[in-house]
Amino acid sequence: TFMHVPNYARLGVYILHGADDDNVPATEARSMVEAMSAAHGEYVYHEQPGVGHWWDLSPAPGTDCVDWAPMFDFFARHIQPGRKSMREVHFMTSNPGVSSKCNWLAIDAQERQLEMSSADFRLDRGDMRDFTPARLSGVTSNVSRIAFDLEVFGAVRPDTVERAGQRLGGAALSRGGARLWFERRAGRWAVAHEPSPDLKGARRYGTFKEAFRNRPVFVFGTKGTREENEWAFGKARFDAEKLWYQGNGSIDVVRDVDFDPSVDRDRNVVLYGNGNTNAAWKALLGESPVQVGKGRIRVGARKLSGADLGCVFIRPRPGSATASVAAVSGTGVAGMRLANRLPYLSPGIGLPDFTVFDSRVLAAGDAGVAATGFFGVDWSVESGEFVWNVR
Question: What whole-number distance in Å separates Cα of residue 17 and Cα of residue 14?
Answer without folding.
Answer: 10
